[in-house]
Design brief:
This protein has a single domain, classed as 2-Layer Sandwich (Alpha-Beta Plaits). It contains 3 helices and 4 strands; from the N terminus they run E-H-E-E-H-H-E. A 4-stranded antiparallel β-sheet has the order 2-3-1-4. Helix 1 packs antiparallel against helix 3. The protein is globular, with a radius of gyration of 15 Å.
Length: about 110
C-alpha cells in the first residue's frame, strides 16, 4: 500500500467552498472510481488555517496513475470544478507526496 498526501493552500476565505466541492462533487466520483480517501484534515494550529490536507490509499503507483487520470478527465469533475471556480480559483497551491510505510506498526 502507498499513500498520497495532498495539501491545498486555499485562497483566503475559500476553504469552506473547497470542502463543499469535495463533499458534493469529488467524493461521489471517487467512490464510483474506487479511489480510497483515508481522511481529511484542516489546520488547528500552524502557519496556515486556510489549508486542507487529505490522504488517499493506493495499492500501487499503477493504480494511482490509472484511477487519478480517469478521475481528472471525467466530464462531471471538469464541469464541477469549472462551476465552483466561476468567480476565480479556490486553491492557490497544491502540494502532494507519495508515501510508503517506513515502519511496521502491526502488533507483535
Amino acid at each position: 500500500m502507498i499513500y498520497e498526501l495532498r495539501c491545498y493552500d486555499c485562497m483566503p476565505g475559500c476553504l469552506p467552498r473547497v470542502l463543499r466541492r469535495f463533499e458534493d462533487d469529488a467524493l461521489p466520483l471517487w467512490r464510483e472510481a474506487g479511489i480510497r480517501p483515508v481522511g481529511f484534515w484542516t489546520t488547528l494550529v500552524g502557519e496556515n488555517d486556510q489549508s486542507l490536507h487529505y490522504m488517499l490509499a493506493w495499492l500501487s503507483l499503477t493504480e494511482r496513475e490509472e484511477k487519478w487520470t480517469a478521475f481528472a478527465a471525467d466530464p462531471r469533475w471538469i464541469e464541477a470544478r469549472r462551476r465552483s471556480e466561476a468567480d476565480g480559483p479556490l486553491v492557490a497551491r497544491i502540494r502532494n507526496s507519495l508515501l510508503k510505510p517506513a515502519l511496521d506498526l502491526a502488533p507483535a
